[in-house]
Structure formats: structure tokens, C-alpha cells
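Entry 14. Ran structure prediction on the chain below.
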Amino acid sequence: MQGRRNHHSLSDEQIVQFKREGYLVFPALIPEERLAYYLEVCRSLVNRGNQQETSKEWVDGAANADTSFNLLKDEEGKVIPGKLHKVQGAVLLAEELGELMREDFLVEKVKDLMAVSSRPPSTIDCFGTKFFPLLPEGGTSVGWHQGNKCPMLQVY
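Output, C-alpha cells:
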């Protein structure tokens, strides 16, 4: 197949973009039934987070706990009860998210990226699982993701 290499499934264009931008988007990577499953897990986390009245504070860029629901703050810096901002330690609060990191479709893409990396790591490690819900009208600390209006799961 033209534009493909034998040792991975990335096209030449994808390799160039990955080396230039440091990321790739794989539309429809997650099969529909698995996407529905993971979106439901994420919705459950949002529902749990929106039931919170208080929020853990961040100190020197780190939460003061392994897991926490962090709530959105208003313009004056006061916590808005019931408005989820992000979840620290998401996989510890929803173990089902750990399954995502072991799914063959994701692991194979990570292996592909490692194969074309100039300094490939010897192991794949996932840590610091944070969940930033893409809620309507904000609700996330990574506002540049808000332009994406389709249901999706982003893995970093």
C-alpha cells in the first residue's frame, strides 16, 4: 500500500505530522460500542463530581490527594458547588477507565508512534490520570478543547 511502511500502520503524512506537531488524531479509533461504554463511565464521573459541594485545592501544581473532584470557580475565585472542573486520579475513581489504556486498538497506535519516534521509550507507562470533562459553557481548565463539539474521548 502506497504511503505506508511495513513495521507500523502510520502513513508518511502522519509520521511527518507527529514529528512536527507531537500528536496525531485518530478519528473513529475507538469502536462505537467501546466508545459508548467509556462515555458512560465519564458521564458517571461527571455526575459524581457535580454532586460535590466542596473542592480540593491545588498546591504547587499538584492536588493534595491522589483523587479529587475539583469544582469550577467563579470570577471571584469561589467554588461553584455542583459544577465539575476536573477529576484528579480518574482511574482510581472509575477503574473502568484503566481498561481503556489496555485496549488493543490504543496500544497498537502507541506502539506505532514509538516505532517512528527518534527516541522510543522501552516501556509504555500511564500515570496521572486526569479527566477534563468537555462540558457546555466551559467547565474545564483546558478551554482550547471546547471547540470540539462531537462526542469523543481524548487520551494523552
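The two ends are 29 Å apart (CA to CA). Will compare against last week's run tomorrow.
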